[in-house]
Write a structure and sequence with these properties.
The complex is a heterodimer of chains A (270) and B (260). With 270 residues, chain A is of the alpha/beta class. Chain A is built from ten helices and ten strands. Chain B: It is found in: Cell inner membrane.
Chain lengths: 270, 260
């Protein structure tokens, strides 16, 4: 890629139970840029984020995040290292027993000894950045899905992380909510210089904001590059995914025996 | 036949794996230096949730069990003209056995199931994962206060249960059936030994508290994060806790009062 990599995955193999999720995946994610990781449902996009965050360990291969081999860190070192990571979960994952304000203040209360008035200022700034300063007294159950995700975004940037990972940020959003999140991801990246990893299968939105993208399918990377490079990618599988063709290398029909057998026509039509 | 043996063997290895995982989980929760400044408010909150909110069911159950013991005890003992020993019978039954055991069973049903469901739901809604990704260990932040709260609350609840039960027995035996009040309390005082009876009862409830809280938090943390998974984990908490309490009660009773 020729750029300074913040995250490097090299020949990563990972299985869950008997199922091989990644079979030698190598990806480089450049520092300070937005990288989209795309792929069909069940291709292991969220698993990739969990591997980068150290919640899962690969069977083999290496994952280097900011120069640190994440799979080799001890538990305490890993928790310390995660203070410079933020992650936006698909569900938002707000703490349901805390208000919006307390949710955003939570990482600061746990990891810093900042005075209360400073925590107050930072929480209000973060909520202002996502447009929800006025909602600080609400409980998570009173928020819409989009607001929930925006509060979670404010919480994930509370400690000014170097890396932020977005897990399906656009899933289930209406067009306005999606537009708001696209703007926020782009603005946060440019204003804070964050390294952003965006996992999604919303092709248009992802390609509109990312600097680089890679597509994962069948346990490996089938295409990577800038959005324009991907659009011209020669792989039929990449083109099928980007353009949403119902049939192609990924077949429309689930593998089955011959239709003539199932319909009882094996002996021919009489 | 071979399939049956294989299935039996698989169940055995699954059980050993499960016990091993629960042991590692417990070691993870209990390891590390406690942080009183952050930990104490979390512990107090859980003590309120699993202890104070369980008081109503403990008090009401203790009262009725004490009253039933008074009624049954009077009926049996009056046949032998020994109804004056009713206080002694009620106190020993409650302090040694029914107090710790029934409290533990009620605790498993009310607080244990709630703990499992709460932790399971936190897992299903990715709250535990998000905590991990924020650099906060959920074992220390979420699980440990709940485990300690169960451990602390159980003996206190068992003592309250026994006290209310003894009072309930007095209401029936003395106030209703007319046993002499002096005999009720005097016989009790003469026959209940602080170390042999009261302390052994408290030791039982401490053990039950630890086991019930461990099962509850482990089932919640280890559950399949779906509605069916949480439902199954909650059921397992109540069933496993009840069986563990009854089995351990036999072992502890044999050790404490066996005199073989």
């Amino acid at each position: 890629m020729g750029l300074d990599s913040y995250i490097t995955l090299k020949d990563v193999v990972f299985s869950r139970s008997d199922r091989r999720i990644f079979n030698g995946v190598s990806v480089e994610i450049p520092r300070g840029k937005i990288t989209a990781v795309m792929g069909p449902s069940g291709s292991g996009k969220t698993t990739l984020l969990r591997l980068v965050g150290g919640q899962l360990r690969p069977d083999s291969g290496s994952i280097i995040v900011d120069g640190q081999p994440i799979g080799e860190l001890r538990r305490k070192e890993l928790y310390k290292f995660r203070e410079k990571m933020g992650m936006l979960f698909q569900s938002g994952a707000l703490f349901t027993d805390l208000s919006v304000y307390e949710n955003v203040a939570f990482p600061m209360r746990v990891h810093t000894k900042l005075p209360e008035d400073m925590i107050n200022d930072i929480v209000l700034m973060k909520l202002e950045a996502v447009g929800l300063r006025g909602a600080r007294k609400l409980m998570p159950s009173e928020l819409s899905g989009g607001m929930n995700r925006r509060v979670a975004l404010a919480r994930s940037i509370a400690l000014d992380p170097e890396l932020i990972m977005y897990d399906e940020p656009f899933a289930g959003q209406d067009p306005i909510g999606m537009g708001v999140l696209v703007k926020l991801i782009r603005d946060l990246n440019s204003s804070m210089g964050l390294t952003s990893v965006l996992v999604s299968h919303d092709v248009q939105e992802s390609l509109s904001i990312c600097h680089y993208a890679c597509i994962i399918a069948d346990g490996k990377v089938i295409g990577a590059g800038t959005p324009s490079e991907l659009q011209d990618h020669p792989s039929e599988q990449v083109q099928q995914f980007l353009n949403g063709h119902p049939d192609g290398p990924v077949p429309f029909h689930y593998p089955s025996s011959a239709a003539t057998e199932d319909f009882g026509l094996a002996g021919g039509v009489s | 036949m071979i399939d049956r043996i294989a299935s039996f063997g698989r169940s055995g290895t699954d059980l050993v794996v499960s016990i091993g995982r629960a042991g590692r989980f417990l070691a993870g929760v209990l390891s590390g230096v406690p942080r009183p400044i952050t930990g104490f408010p979390l512990l107090m909150k859980q003590l309120y949730s699993v202890g104070v909110l369980s008081l109503a069911i403990i008090v009401v159950s203790g009262l009725f069990i004490g009253m039933v013991l008074g009624l049954q005890g009077y009926t049996i003992l009056s046949d032998f003209g020994s109804e004056a020993a009713i206080g002694q019978m009620i106190a020993l039954t409650l302090v040694r056995e029914l107090g710790p055991v029934v409290t533990a069973l009620l605790f498993a049903g009310r607080a244990g199931s709630a703990l499992t469901a709460e932790i399971g739901l936190m897992k299903a809604t990715e709250q535990l994962s998000s905590m991990e990704m924020m650099g906060v260990d959920p074992l220390r932040r979420v699980i440990a206060p709940r485990l300690w709260a169960g451990f602390i609350a159980m003996p206190v609840l068992a003592i309250i249960f026994s006290m209310v039960g003894i009072w309930g027995g007095m209401l029936v035996g003395v106030e209703w059936l007319g046993v002499f009040e002096g005999s009720y309390w005097g016989n009790m005082q003469a026959s209940v030994d602080f170390w042999d009876d009261v302390v052994n009862g408290i030791i039982k409830s401490v053990v039950f508290g630890f086991v019930c809280a461990w099962i509850a938090v482990y089932q919640g943390y280890d559950c399949v994060p779906t509605s069916a998974g949480i439902s199954s984990a909650t059921t397992k908490t109540v069933v496993y806790s009840s069986l563990a309490v009854l089995g351990l009660d036999f072992v502890l009773t044999a050790v404490m009062f066996g005199n073989f």
